[in-house]
Structures are given as structure tokens and as C-alpha cells.
């Protein structure tokens, strides 16, 4: 259509919108991260925005406010289909029409029942609508939300630190610090991008971890979750210090009278072997609390339980150029006894962090979150979309 920005301008704008969306990681749940760029008639950028907090203005509203009258006749480039419902904020489809936008380019259709339909509403109002530009990049930045709303459980990232020979600690149990300060700072970034951080009672006893985010400006503190089957948590544990919300998951028959008043306790059934907690009820309960992304920071036993339960969506390993030769492995008890049972991973990224290497991988048999919309037969409930 005459007067539209060149395709290269729209592509650059979408790449910028994806980068903007990433700024909302860890602070928008249970809503998605979304970025928006508004282009004027001549293809120049006149407005930018991203969804910053659940309940706050959406990305499109921020971008339109910055664009002002320059939005008239322009193009809105958005990472996710503009919403078409009224929750705590109004529908973005109406905001775009009211602003005089003549074209909307979005990367990924909205997979939820309540908010989808923005594209149809825009088309009915005479707006030219296009879908699919840089969809894979937009899916990647929103992988946790897209995955979680599809199956109603959080997207789980297992993070670990290890030596090159795969040890998570020395034979005497010492583990501070295997990796460098650069790697540890990156872990705080991962925490800041997550809704919850999970550890087990073994890590709690060995390290007394704090699990709050440090050194990340504007970070929303994630929910600190300790899987403490027998409720052995002491009242002086650092995780109970109030710096961030904390949830203590215990067995349904565990005694918790010794825990400090006001402790948030989640009672769960025991696992089939009786030695831990059933993980799928845990994940379902976390999803009900608004958790869409969870960072698993537990030791080898808890990590093995999650792998055995097919409950790991992504692995982030920090490998230090160190050899120990003995000590606990990074992963244990995953139920893998022969090579044919090995969980094959697909490496999606490698980064140098000081002397260390960060490797990011996903299960090889797991397809990336699909671009929603085509062929969808079911949709999550309305609360799983922006409101």
C-alpha cells in the first residue's frame, strides 16, 4: 500500500520492539512481555514502549503516547497481537484505531481466549494488518509466557554452576566460588527475569541461600520457593528475612508449628517414592499464583527430580575452567541408567563471562513454543492474558 514504511524499516522496528519487550522480563507476570514501535508515514520512529508492569499501560499505549499526533497515518509494530479486551486497562485495538494508526504489524498472534481478536477488530476498522514478521525472535523473548499459558504450568529453567569435569562442589562440600563474579552477576539477571526461584532443603542446609536479586536496577524480587518436604527450615534461615516473598512447600503431613508466624506454607502430596514432593502439583500451584517462569537453583538431587519428571524447559550452565576430580556432580538421580535414555539437548547459545562459559540449551526433543493461532484447538482462561 502506498505510503507504508519500507519493509526494512518495519523489520528494524520489530527487532527494536523485541529488545524493548525483553525489558519487561520478570515484572509483567501473569502477563506477557510486549514491545511496540510506532513509525510515522515516512518510516521514521516516533514512539516506543514496552509493557512494564501487570496492571499498567500496555506497550502500545506507551508508544502511542510518545508518538502523539505523529501516529496519525503511521504504522504500529508490535511483538504480540494487540489485545481486544478490557481488564485493568482498555483494549489496545481501540487505542490504535483512536490514534489514527493506518497499519499494524505484529509478530505473534495472542493465544488466549479473552484478549485475542485484536487483529480482527483492527481490520474491521479499516486498519491494514500484517502478522508474522520476525515471529521466531518474538516467540523467543516471550517463550516463558507462551509456553506456560499453553500448558498451565510455569516455564522452568534449571541453572547450575560446575567445573569442567562436571562437579558442583569439592569433595568436602565447599562450592564458593566455583564460577567468577561475572557469572554470579549474570545469575542475578536470571533471577530478575524470573517470577520464582526454587531450591531444595539440601541446598538450604548446605548454603543457607538468600535468593533475592542484587545489583539489578528496578528488579521485581521473585518469589523464593524452598521445597522442604519435612519442614526442617529453621526460623533463622536467610530466606525468611523479608527481602523478598517466600513460599515454603512441605509434605501434606509435615509438622510446621515451629515455623515463624506468617510463613507462607504450601502443603503438597509426597512424590511416588516418598522421598520428596510431587512436582507437578507444585508447578500447578505456582501457576495459580501467577508464576509463569521459574528458575531452579537447587542442588543435583532436586535437579535430577525435575529432569526425571520432564519438568525442565531450559538449561543454563555456568562452566568454570576448574578441575576437581571428585565431589558431587551437577545432576543426580535423574532416572537415566543407559546412554539411550540420555536427555539430548540443543544448544541455543554460548557466552564468555570472564573466565567462564555460559551454555544455554533446551531439550532436543522439545520444539520451541509454536507461533500461536494456527490450528489452536484450546485456549487458556482469561486471567492468563494482559489485564
Explained architecture:
- The protein has 387 residues and is an alpha/beta fold.
- 24% of the residues lie in helices and 22% in strands.
- It has helices at 7-22, 59-67, 92-98, 118-124, 135-141, 143-151, 181-192, 201-207, 279-288, 300-308, and strands at residues 35-39, 45-50, 75-80, 103-108, 128-131, 155-163, 196-200, 223-227, 246-251, 264-268, 293-296, 314-320, 345-353, 356-363.
- Helix 4 links the parallel strand 4 and strand 5 (128-131).
- Helix 3 packs parallel to helix 4 (118-124).
- The longest helix has 16 residues, at 7-22.
- Mean pLDDT is 88; it is low at 372-387.
Map the helices and strands.
Elements (H helix, E strand, L loop, with lengths): L6 H16 L12 E5 L5 E6 L8 H9 L7 E6 L11 H7 L4 E6 L9 H7 L3 E4 L3 H7 L1 H9 L3 E9 L17 H12 L3 E5 H7 L15 E5 L18 E6 L12 E5 L10 H10 L4 E4 L3 H9 L5 E7 L24 E9 L2 E8 L24
Parallel strand pairs: 3-4, 4-5, 6-11, 6-12, 7-8, 7-11, 8-9, 9-10
Antiparallel strand pairs: 1-2, 1-3, 12-14, 13-14
Main beta sheet: strand number and arrangement? Answer: 9 strands, mixed
What is the averaged pLDDT score?
88
Q: Percentage of helical residues? A: 10-25%
Beta-strand content? 15-25%
Low-pLDDT runs: 372-387
| Strands ordered across the widest β-sheet | 10-9-8-7-11-6-12-14-13
Q: How many helices does DSSP assign?
A: 10
Class by alpha and beta content:
alpha/beta
Distance between the termini: 33 Å
Strand/helix succession: HEEHEHEHEHHEHEHEEEHEHEEE
Amino acid at each position: 500500500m502506498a505510503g507504508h514504511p519500507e519493509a526494512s524499516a518495519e523489520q528494524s522496528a520489530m527487532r527494536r520492539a523485541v529488545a524493548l519487550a525483553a525489558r519487561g522480563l520478570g515484572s509483567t507476570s501473569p502477563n506477557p512481555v510486549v514491545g511496540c514501535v510506532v513509525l510515522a508515514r515516512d518510516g521514521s520512529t516516533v514512539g516506543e514502549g514496552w509493557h512494564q508492569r501487570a496492571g499498567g499501560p500496555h506497550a502500545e499505549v506507551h508508544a502511542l503516547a510518545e508518538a502523539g499526533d505523529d501516529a496519525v497515518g503511521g504504522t504500529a509494530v508490535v511483538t504480540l497481537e494487540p489485545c481486544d479486551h478490557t481488564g485493568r486497562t482498555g483494549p489496545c485495538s481501540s487505542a490504535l484505531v483512536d490514534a489514527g494508526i493506518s497499519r499494524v504489524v505484529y509478530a505473534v498472534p495472542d493465544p488466549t481466549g479473552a484478549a485475542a481478536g485484536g487483529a480482527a477488530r483492527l481490520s474491521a476498522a479499516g486498519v491494514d494488518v500484517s502478522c508474522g514478521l520476525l515471529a521466531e525472535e518474538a516467540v523467543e523473548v516471550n517463550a516463558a509466557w507462551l509456553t506456560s499459558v499453553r500448558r498451565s504450568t510455569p516455564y522452568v529453567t534449571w541453572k547450575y554452576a560446575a567445573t569442567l569435569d562436571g562437579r558442583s562442589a569439592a569433595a568436602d562440600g565447599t562450592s564458593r566460588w566455583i564460577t567468577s563474579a561475572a557469572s554470579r552477576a549474570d545469575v542475578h539477571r536470571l533471577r530478575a527475569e524470573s517470577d520464582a526461584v526454587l531450591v531444595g532443603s539440601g541446598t538450604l542446609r548446605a548454603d543457607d541461600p538468600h535468593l533475592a536479586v542484587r545489583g539489578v536496577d528496578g528488579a521485581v524480587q521473585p518469589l523464593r520457593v524452598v521445597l522442604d518436604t519435612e519442614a526442617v527450615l529453621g526460623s533463622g534461615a536467610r530466606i525468611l528475612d523479608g527481602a523478598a516473598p517466600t513460599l515454603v512447600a512441605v509434605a501434606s503431613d509435615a509438622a510446621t508449628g515451629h515455623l515463624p508466624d506468617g510463613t507462607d506454607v504450601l502443603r503438597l502430596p509426597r512424590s511416588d517414592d516418598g522421598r520428596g514432593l510431587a512436582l507437578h502439583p507444585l508447578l500447578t500451584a505456582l501457576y495459580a499464583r501467577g508464576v509463569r517462569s521459574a528458575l531452579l537453583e537447587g542442588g543435583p538431587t532436586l535437579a535430577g527430580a525435575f529432569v526425571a519428571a520432564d519438568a525442565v524447559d531450559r538449561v543454563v550452565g555456568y562452566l568454570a575452567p576448574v578441575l576437581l576430580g571428585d565431589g558431587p556432580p551437577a545432576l543426580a538421580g535423574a532416572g537415566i541408567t543407559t546412554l539411550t535414555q540420555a536427555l539430548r539437548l540443543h544448544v541455543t547459545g554460548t557466552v564468555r563471562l570472564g573466565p567462564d562459559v555460559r551454555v544455554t540449551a533446551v531439550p532436543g526433543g522439545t520444539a520451541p513454543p509454536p507461533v500461536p493461532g494456527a490450528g489452536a484447538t484450546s485456549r487458556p482462561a482469561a486471567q492468563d492474558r494482559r489485564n
